[in-house]
User: Fold these one by one.
Assistant:
Number 1:
Amino acid sequence: MSSPIKFLAQKHRKQTVIIAVIGSIYALSSWILNFDSFSGFTAVPKAFTWLGVNFSPTSESVELLPRIWQKLIETVALAVSSTVVAAIIALFVAILGSKATGINNYVHVIVRGIASFFRNIPLVAWAMILLFSFKQSDFTGFLALLLMTVGYLIRAFMEIIEDEASETMMALKATGASYFQVIFQAVLPQIMPSLISWVLYMIENNVRDATLVGILTGTGIGFIFDLYFKSFRFDAVGMTILAIIIVVIVLEVLSNQIRKVIL
Amino acid sequence: MITRDDIQNVSGYKKPQPPEKKIKLRKFNWSRVMIYAVMVVLLSVTGYTLTHLDTANVKIGDAIHGLMMTLNQIFLQPRAGSDGVMPLLSALGISLLLAIMTTIIGAVIGFLFAVIASRNLTNAYFGAIIRVVMAIIRAIPTIVWVLIFSIVCGLGTNAAILGLSFHSIAYLTKAYSESIEEIDQTTIEALKVTGSKFWVIVFQAIWPTIIASLVSWTFIRLEINFANAIAVGAAAGAGGIGYQLFVASGMSFDFHEVGFIVYLIIGVTILLEFIAVKLRQMYITK
């Protein structure tokens, strides 16, 4: 048994080593990336004063507001629809693939693999690959978000089914209910609240990601942002960012309230 | 003869009547109503959007055929292409370093803010202000942050580091302060009674209690930051593997190279996920 002093000394040494390792990783990275921490962080206040001056709304940018809103609402609708379609697909696949309701263990492993594959291909790659065949349209953005979201939701739904529905399922099976009765009377009602909660989370996420996809595929709010940004109309850029902030925060507050009621 | 009816009349016994109303099989609750309402709203938005979607008049059959050809090139015939293996690997390294560095910055500054912002530790008003500021920072997509900083610092890694760090700080502040708020109040009060200073409480009581969730949140953020580093490289030209991906798929249309890059990225993300799982197990068993 080690004495308290020895224990504290050991703890101290361990902490020092961890801090030293993290510090040296930081130093090494900033050296390789050519990042000067001091001038980097002093750029932050400079950036904000610059923002305050150039991003402040002008009469011209206020006139653009209806156009910005229209694109933003289009983007939100796109994020919502891609998430909902992804959720429907993911629910079917998750029921087929989960350990509790699935066909067998091979299917489980295959489904997990597919989900992980879709999740790990970067959104940028999906956007660029789809852009090549589907051209510059909202449909391309929709597909890119859809493919990415499917990967996340399959995994989430499978875990939800395994965690939450197993016991209810067992109870219903004991009464002699058929497979479909078990699915529709036990599994779906049981997992619905968590399912909706995940869908809301993915919608929030996809609204943010839709901006990125928009910049790459030339659609929605991302396109407008890129257009104003590259033509140096910073008052309009500021207006666009303000609109994005408002929509994202409203969505976050709304989905938190919904979550409070359903969970 | 005495009939059953007579007995009933004498004793005042009444035949049990069937209940007037049907027994309710479901209890009314707001949760169910809300779930249906949300589903109806989401499905109608989806229906409207999908029927009004602009598809740029692409013939779906041709597009899917083209997509299959591209996917075939990407996933079945990956090749390093004209860039060569080494430059791609070093670009991958740069993206990974970007992710690690911004996660370190985010974790350190995020922890400080989280301590200040947690409801059970500090002044409520000050905490509320920090939470609102962080919510606003989080609402702006990472790519937009990077583009904003690129105006001041010039396009490149500096802007990428600052932009990614900003979003990481805001995200980790929220995650950490939620973990801190889950701590049992008695632990903190016990230390306060002994007259411990604020930072002693933070590092002797809070830090050891939440270290497991701290580590797992930090690793989740590292994975997100790696994905963001790629996105930023592609959409803001901030260098790294993302930029190579953008050039290969959007300019030189070399899909064999895209495949190679995608496999590299998948390799790193799976590695990160593996490390995260192992670390979590290590801290949970401790």
Number 2:
Amino acid sequence: MLGGLQPRQLLTQLLNFALVLSTAFMLWKGLSVATDSPSPIVVVLSGSMEPAFQRGDLLFLWNRGQNTQVGEIVVYKVKGKDIPIVHRVVRRYGGGDEPLQLLTKGDNNLADDTELYARGQDYLTRSTDIIGSVVGYVPFVGYVTILLSEHPWLKTVLLGLMGVMVVLQRE
Amino acid sequence: MAATKIAVYSIPDLKNNTDDALPNYLTSLKFKQSHFLTDVRLALGYSAVIIAAITFYVDYKLGWDKTKSWTFWAVLIYFTLNGALTFWIWDVEKGNVFAGEVDQPSVGRQSLSVASSVAKHTPIYNVKVECSNPEGETKFLEFSSPFTRWYDVNGFFVAKPFQQWLASEIPLIGQVDPKNKGGEAKAAASATENSEIKGSVQQDRYDTPNRLVANDAAPTSTRSRRGKKG
């Protein structure tokens, strides 16, 4: 099907495809730049913040304005661990001239988060550990990603379905 | 170009296939095609894509913190290029399907650009033509025709009526390709060739009684008639 095309037509077709991918990626990066957060949209993975957030909720983050207050819900990433955690700020130390430090706790957890931090770490440093504060959310729509990561065989099924569709549609 | 069958009810198919046939015809008439418009479009588009690819790679390698300020500029340039590309497609190309010039004793040196468009859900091919000569005189032409003029019932492109149509509507092409210009006059005179072209309503009126008769009288004859056609 592609064999009959002129080189410029082929390049134009490829360009259309590449533009779809690159625009999606650059929109994401643009959102990152605007919110100053490496990952401005995250999915809640655990029930530790119930009843505020359920598993699968989609959260929108904002990372400008570093003066985080007690009561704000933040997403942080502990060094050496990949998964970001969404919890509420319950204590703050420092601020102003000193670096701001925070202690967090899940609404649904009995204890605060010192157990979850890196070995020897008793608090989070605002400027380096926090990805952003939660400013908005959409319930449940992120659940697909949880399903996919918890049941890896679903990814295979989904890929297979996509492959079958490509073959059947011929476009 | 191999004859490809297209879906006759898909207007994008009709248009794209016709758009492809148009430069083929004109280059066969010794028009020299200029790819300037397409080349600028490709340059704009691929620069944007390359910037996105580099951003992806650097971000993957170094992480967010080290690339933050850099990413800001990449995003800015990417969307500027993307905007320029959109502007180029909508305001400069404007549906252009052919740009080029011809240099022949019969017409001298003239340049020609052809743009095409279709309205939604309307199987009519609209053409806008711009002809200009070195003296700076420019002529604009606009005309249109239903696709049925150059597609047969099965969705095959028929080159002859298409070429005759262009040669008779655009004087410059008529001068370069007088054979097709004359052909159009003849085709219009003979009613048989035209009835096939003119749209499906008329064809139905022709076909239905025949089919009914054939089915009533002898179904085998219908089959043999179809066999000859296909």
